[in-house]
Structure formats: structure tokens, C-alpha cells
């Protein structure tokens, strides 16, 4: 059986192939949810809180996870999902709150201690030991369960005498006692059982070093390593990240089988179709809080969840060119039907002539980008006209930031080309692209915190000739951003988030760009500061004539100021068109939340 997670699929029951027997297991989602709701609680989280330098990453999170239940945590970037997983697995210590495994407190005990109590996990970016074989990587997951080979393992929690435990393990490895031989045989049997779950992919690769594996096979190895100890709770942090559709379907099938066996799973995942197919309950997070919980379809159609992914519907700010076109359209509509048709044809011809007369400023044509074996961008084509705002939209891990890095020359495409002002710049260095007029405002601003405002601004002009009027441009930035003039001698790291974003804008303008690539410029800002940032983006287009490629996760927000938009999903362009058309297109919502319905705005 090959699992299917096509967009919009209805999941009424799940048929799961048992890899060890030639049978299928039928799971009815509703029956399974009712059954696990009556089961004992494995994980109890209460009022969990964690802050980083004043930023509340996890804020009063509470939930129960029952034996045999699968709960998924979803949410946009920065919502607190991975921080929650890291708190539960002991990689972070909570500021306050309770985390219990089968009523035993584990909050703040450390990852090794938590692991000993029956929690196993995978990691968002995939972590295998490249110099070890597949078998050796998987066997490591059972190390915490060994007894004969770890005679004094209880001492490891005491820093002063933990060396005794390590010395005992070394001795056990050198002296093959019968009990140790039996234990090694048991580990080998368990490794074979885990390999069998992925036998078509890993069966012939058991002795291969992990670094030689494809990305997807490394993720499979990591899942097998986490599962070999038969943990009380399996934490999976984006297990299908970087996988294509068929690979994702294969992992889904394995997860469904684990669910059918009664495993308890807490999953963080961005692929909504997978979440819907596997989950009993879904927790949606935003701003560190749980904003919705319940069955998958119920949660992804909750207005607060849709708003968290797409942003709030805002008043649209159109460019002067757009306003002229709309005015012409309104005038045409007032004419008689026959005249309307003729005038409409004339306007269409006028637009076509104007487009032909003004070539695009930037063109990406059939661009493919790989990170190792991961196909991050798949035949991506997009076009940025002069004096325009183009929004590049998509959910987490859809390929937005990779597209921007490719334009800036930080990532090299394997196939396709990049044209700038009619010239191929695919092989041009980042420095020379900046000199040619391509600037960036990176995610999280990334100003130089120990440098003053003025020093940061001058760093934006480092590629320019000394003969240029840099001093005059500096004064122009102070005139455009008066707040920066007031703080010109202040260290940038001491400014507010909104002020740092203004500084990042001004620094980019100091390179005299024709196009600015902005990566999530509103992230982490208050609503009032978001309005200010969007106002400045519109001014860049309307007052200076700079084109903006706006990489943004919140669709409603970005489309409200854009002329044109592209929607990325799993590294491919799924939708594109005029911003006003996309703003009301339900397929945009589906690209973020699967088969979500349009009536939740």
C-alpha cells in the first residue's frame, strides 16, 4: 500500500500496511480518537513558559497526551513549536510550568535524564553520525536501554563520579561476558526489525556510512534510531522536512503503522495534509500560545489559525499605476456595451504594449536548487517588473528564503537562469550583484549591534566608489527616517525592533539599489510597527521607484501592498497572479492549510 496525501483528500479511514506481515490494518480516525481519549495520560504539560531575553517564546502552554494518541503541533515561523519540543525533551529548561511523564516530573532535568525516562526524539534539521554506518546509527538509539554494558549507568547523573560509569562501559566493551553477548544479539535483532520498516530504502544500505545516504534516507535512519528503544513517547520534529511527495507518503505510511501499534507520538510538522492524515488532535500555536486545539479539520478551519498563517485582512494600498488602470476600467464600465467591448480591447492592447516596452527588472527561469539531496526549489520562475512590489508567499519550509538567497547569489542553482536588467547574472558573485543594484533586508534585521546607527548605514555603501556622494545619501536617509538621525550615535543593538527594521531599510538603500529583497520584514513587530514598515515599503516603490521582492509568510499582509504575487509550496510555484486577485483566491489558503475553507477570514 502506498499512502496518499494529495491536496484536499478526505481522510475517513486509514489503511496501513504491516511491514512484517502481509496484512493491512484498518484505522477509523473517530474510533481511534474515542479510544485514546479514555487511555491513561502519558505526557502532562501545564502552564509551560519560556522566554529568551524578554521575548516570550512559550507562554502558558498546557495539554495532555494520552497513551496511543498522536498530537501534532502546527503554527507559523516563530510560534513556539520547536521550543515546546525542546522543553519537553530536556534540551531547554522552562522558566516555569510542569512537564510530567506518567506523573513523574521531568521539567529541567536535562536531555539525558529525560531520555532515560522513555522519551526519544528526532530533530528538525536531521542529525545522524555521518562516519557511522546505518546499523551503528540505529543501534545507538538503544544505548540507554542497555544494562550489562552499562553496569553503573546510574552514576552518570552525578558529575563528580560519572567517570566511573564511563570506565565501566569501556571495560564491558573489552570483556565479552555472556550477558554482554546476549545483549549485543538482542540489539542486532532490534536493528534488523527497524531496518525492515524501511527495507526498500535501507535494506541494502545497512553497512554504508550515513554521510553517503540521501537526505531522505538519513531522516529514515534517524526515525529508526529514535524508535528502536520503544519509547513511551516519540517526539518527531518535522520528520519529512526536505522530502518530496512520494518520500513524504512513505514516511506517512510508517507513522500510520506506528500509530496502529499503539505508539504515543508528539509531532511538529508543516505539511498540513500529513498532519490531517495522522493526527488524533492538533494544537495550533502562535506567539508562544495555543490558539486552537481539536480535531485536524476543525483546527485548520479555525479563523484564528487562518489569520496566524495568512495575516489579517488589511486595507489595500495600490500603486499609482494600478490606480490609473482601475480608473480606466471604471470609465469603460460606464460606457455602452458595444463601446465597452471596443474600449476594453484597446485597454488590453495598451497594457500589452506597455509590458512589451518595459522589460522585467529581474527574471528567474526554471530555477532548480538543491541542498545536498534535498530539492529545495523545483523549476521556479518569477518576474519582478521595475517600480513594483512582488510578494513571494508560502508556509514554513516552502522555499521562500531559498529563492531570495538564490537571487542574492548566496545559493547557486543547479539548473535555470537569473536575468537582471536583461543580462544573465547566474554566475555573478554576491558582491557584484550588490554593485549592480540588488540589495537585501535579511530576516530578523541583522544589523550590527555593536556599531552605531551611522556606522551601520555607511556599511551599506561599502561597494560604492569613494567619489560617490555618500555623505549626501546619508543625510537623505536621515531625512527619510528622522528617528535614525536622532539616534545616529547610538549602538544599533540597543534600539527597538521597529527602529532596527528602519535601519535595515536605510542600510539597504545606501547601496543605491534598483531592487530590494526583503525577508519577513514584519516578523516580531507590534501591529503599529507593522503598519509603519508596510508604509515604508510602499514609499520605496512610489517615491523612490525601487522594486521590492517581499518574502513574507502572512499572505493577507503582503498582498495588501503588492502589485503581483507568487505562492510557493514544497519548493514549487503553485499560484501566481495580480495581488488583488490572489487576495480573494481560496487556493492561497489551501496552499497554507490544505483543504481549508474560504469562509474563514
TrEMBL record:
Keywords: Amino-acid transport, ATP-binding, Hydrolase, Nucleotide-binding, Transport
Domain ABC transporter: 43-312, 362-595
GO terms for MF: ATP binding; ATP hydrolysis activity; branched-chain amino acid transmembrane transporter activity
Record Gene3D superfamilies: P-loop containing nucleotide triphosphate hydrolases
Enzyme class: hydrolase
GO term, biological process aspect, one: L-amino acid transport
Cross-referenced InterPro entries: AAA+_ATPase, ABC_transporter-like_ATP-bd, ABC_transporter-like_CS, BCA_ABC_TP_C, BCAA_Transport_ATP-bd_LivF, P-loop_NTPase
Region (Disordered): 334-359
PANTHER family: HIGH-AFFINITY BRANCHED-CHAIN AMINO ACID TRANSPORT ATP-BINDING PROTEIN LIVF (PTHR43820)
Family: Belongs to the ABC transporter superfamily.
Name of the featured protein: Putative ABC transporter ATP-binding protein
Organism field: Bifidobacterium subtile
Amino acid at each position: 500500500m502506498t499512502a496518499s496525501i494529495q491536496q484536499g483528500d478526505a481522510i475517513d479511514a486509514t489503511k496501513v500496511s504491516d511491514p512484517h506481515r502481509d496484512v493491512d490494518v484498518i484505522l477509523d480516525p473517530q474510533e481511534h480518537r474515542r479510544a485514546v481519549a479514555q487511555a491513561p495520560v502519558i505526557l502532562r504539560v501545564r502552564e509551560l513558559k519560556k522566554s529568551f531575553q524578554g521575548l516570550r517564546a512559550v507562554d502558558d502552554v498546557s495539554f495532555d497526551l494520552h497513551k496511543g494518541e498522536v498530537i501534532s503541533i502546527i503554527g507559523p515561523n516563530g510560534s513556539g513549536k520547536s521550543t515546546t519540543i525542546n522543553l519537553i525533551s530536556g534540551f531547554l529548561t522552562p522558566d516555569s510550568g510542569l512537564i510530567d511523564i506518567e506523573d513523574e516530573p521531568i521539567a529541567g532535568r536535562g536531555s539525558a535524564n529525560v531520555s532515560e525516562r522513555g522519551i526519544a526524539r528526532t530533530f528538525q534539521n536531521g542529525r545522524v553520525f555521518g562516519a557511522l554506518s546505518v546499523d551503528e546509527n540505529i543501534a545507538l538509539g538503544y544505548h540507554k536501554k542497555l544494562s550489562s554494558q552499562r553496569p553503573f549507568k546510574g552514576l552518570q547523573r552525578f558529575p563528580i563520579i560519572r567517570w566511573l560509569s564511563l570506565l565501566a562501559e569501556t571495560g564491558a566493551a573489552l570483556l565479552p561476558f555472556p550477558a554482554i553477548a546476549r545483549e549485543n544479539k538482542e540489539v542486532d535483532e532490534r536493528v534488523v526489525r527497524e531496518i525492515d520498516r524501511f527495507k526498500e530504502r535501507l535494506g541494502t544500505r545497512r553497512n554504508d556510512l550515513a554521510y553517503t545516504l540521501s537526505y531522505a534516507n538519513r531522516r529514515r535512519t534517524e526515525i529508526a534510531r529514535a524508535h528502536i528503544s520503544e519509547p513511551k513517547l516519540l517526539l518527531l520534529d518535522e520528520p519529512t522536512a526536505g522530502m518530496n511527495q512520494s518520500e513524504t507518503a512513505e514516511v506517512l505510511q510508517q507513522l500510520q503503522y506506528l500509530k496502529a501499534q499503539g505508539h504515543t507520538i508528539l509531532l511538529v510538522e508543516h505539511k498540513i495534509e500529513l498532519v490531517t492524515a495522522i493526527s488524533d488532535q492538533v494544537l495550533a500555536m502562535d506567539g508562544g500560545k495555543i490558539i486552537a486545539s481539536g480535531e485536524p479539520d476543525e483546527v485548520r478551519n479555525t479563523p484564528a489559525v487562518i489569520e496566524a498563517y495568512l495575516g489579517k485582512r488589511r486595507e489595500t494600498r495600490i500603486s499609482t499605476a494600478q490606480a490609473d488602470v482601475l480608473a480606466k476600467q471604471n470609465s469603460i464600465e460606464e460606457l455602452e456595451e458595444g463601446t465597452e467591448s471596443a474600449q476594453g480591447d484597446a485597454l488590453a492592447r495598451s497594457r500589452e504594449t506597455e509590458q512589451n516596452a518595459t522589460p522585467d527588472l529581474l527574471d528567474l527561469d526554471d530555477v532548480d536548487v538543491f541542498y545536498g539531496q534535498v530539492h529545495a526549489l523545483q523549476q521556479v520562475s518569477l518576474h519582478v517588473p521595475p517600480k513594483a512590489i512582488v510578494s513571494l508567499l508560502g508556509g514554513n519550509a516552502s522555499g521562500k528564503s531559498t529563492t531570495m538567497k538564490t537571487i542574492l547569489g548566496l545559493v547557486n542553482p543547479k539548473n535555470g537562469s537569473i536575468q537582471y536588467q536583461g543580462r544573465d547574472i547566474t554566475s555573478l558573485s554576491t558582491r557584484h550583484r550588490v554593485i549592480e543594484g540588488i540589495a537585501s533586508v535579511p530576516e530578523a534585521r541583522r544589523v550590527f549591534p555593536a556599531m552605531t546607527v551611522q556606522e551601520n548605514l555607511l556599511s551599506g555603501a561599502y561597494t560604492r566608489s569613494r567619489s560617490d556622494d555618500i555623505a549626501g545619501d546619508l543625510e537623505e536617509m536621515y531625512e527619510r527616517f528622522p528617528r535614525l538621525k536622532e539616534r545616529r550615535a547610538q549602538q544599533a543593538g540597543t534600539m527597538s525592533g521597529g527602529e532596527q527594521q528602519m535601519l535595515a531599510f536605510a542600510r539597504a538603500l545606501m547601496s543605491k539599489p534598483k531592487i530590494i529583497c526583503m525577508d519577513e520584514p514584519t516578523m516580531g513587530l507590534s501591529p503599529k510597527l507593522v503598519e509603519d514598515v508596510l508604509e515604508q515599503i510602499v514609499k520605496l516603490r512610489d517615491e523612490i521607484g525601487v522594486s521590492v521582492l517581499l518574502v513574507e509568510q502572512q499572505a493577507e499582509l503582503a498582498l495588501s501592498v503588492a502589485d503581483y504575487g507568487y505562492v510557493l509550496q514544497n519548493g514549487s510555484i503553485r499560484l501566481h497572479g495580480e495581488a488583488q486577485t490572489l487576495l480573494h483566491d481560496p487556493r492561497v489558503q489551501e496552499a497554507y492549510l490544505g483543504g481549508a475553507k474560504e469562509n474563514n477570514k
